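From: lab user (bench 3)
To: helpdesk
Subject: output format question, protein + cytidine-5'-triphosphate

Hello, I'm new to running complex predictions and I'm not sure whether the block I got back is the full result or only part of it. Here's what I submitted:
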Amino acid sequence: MLENRRILLIVAGGIAAVKVPDLIRRLRERGAHVRCILTKGGAQFVTPLTLAALSGDKCYQELFDLKDESEMGHIRLSREADIILVAPATADIMAKMVAGMADDLATTALLATDKPVMIAPSMNVMMWTHPATQSNLQILKTREVKVVGPSAGDLACGEVGNGRMAEVPEIIAALTRFFQKNDGQGPLTGYKALVTSGPTHEPIDPVRYIANRSSGKQGHAVAAALAELGAQVTLVSGPTHEADPDGVNVVHVETAKQMMKACNDALPAEIVVCAAAVADWSPENAKQKMKKEAGKTPALTLAENPDILATLSQPGPARPNLVVGFAAETENLIENAKTKRAKKNCDWIVANDVSPGSGAFGGDNNTVHLVTADGVESWPTLRKRAVAERLAERIAASFQRHL
Ligand code: CTP
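Helpdesk reply: Thanks, we reran it on our side. This is the complete output you should expect:
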């Protein structure tokens, strides 16, 4: 995906500039052409000679370099790229980009470009969380500037927190995703995904049924997010008020048994996400409406429904590569989720607290923990749409690792 892509790499003055030589090496290994602009601050951390040697091109530093202005003006420099990557992007260069300043070659190129721009911020945690930087970040995002990182961890200044520049593989993945999207492809193009969503309705008789409080919001959002990344998605949905997501093949069902059949019909698929709140039991279904009889309370005889997640996770040649389940719990969230993962033989479990007061059922937010073979990742409270996007990104990343 990076073969023959032209990347103008602006290296600003942060300690993370020491990661840049490795970044250039990895980009060139993937066939990208890298040309560097080094700011005065950046030159405190990495030499122009290093960047020139690794990129196989001149390292540009001065705005008023007459020789280069005749050969390669700042306008041409910025226009001859497919993307401009600012790494590390300091608080200072972000502020200058917002203000439209052009007081050196880097800022002038950024102002003169008509090409997409990606930044990899890197700074002290207080500088990152400062309202000025956060507001600059929002403005840059509204101008379609792409942002990769930063991540949390030990910072070079000795403090701990958010502000570490994204690692080289993360930057490469972000660039790859950018070019894929630009080419009308996504990281999941060519993959088939199956998602279950919503509740199931289990009829007691022709007019009554057993149901649950699932809204289908989370499952539908997962289907939309996977489709957004290029996957060919079938969504098997129980009865919900959610609209069918764009670009997704939706199969509407009512009962757990119908959901099981629709899932089997949608296979094979590489990715399965079971987000439906499938009823565990179905009542013996009376053919006619049950009539009320004075003094008599009917007993419901329940039979176990198929466990769709466990069935699809069964080992075998047709098993999807990645099966993700959800665990709706009201207590011992992580422990129950781990047990559920092992019991149902799925690969990942998205565990969420659905106890009264969590607002998860029917609400727009979700606080989830991703339980995998590698451990537990706790995500902050996010909109269900954001949980879905993050999950889809994680799924895409796990497939890219195996390419
Ligand atoms: N699930 C399923 N088919 C079922 C029951 C559950 O596919 N018949 C899936 C759900 O879509 C979810 C996961 O299993 O991905 C966990 O569902 P949950 O209701 O939380 O677990 P249960 O299996 O019902 O276990 P318990 O009642 O012990 O919580």
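A quick orientation on your result: The chain has two domains: 6-182, 187-401. Let us know if anything else is unclear.
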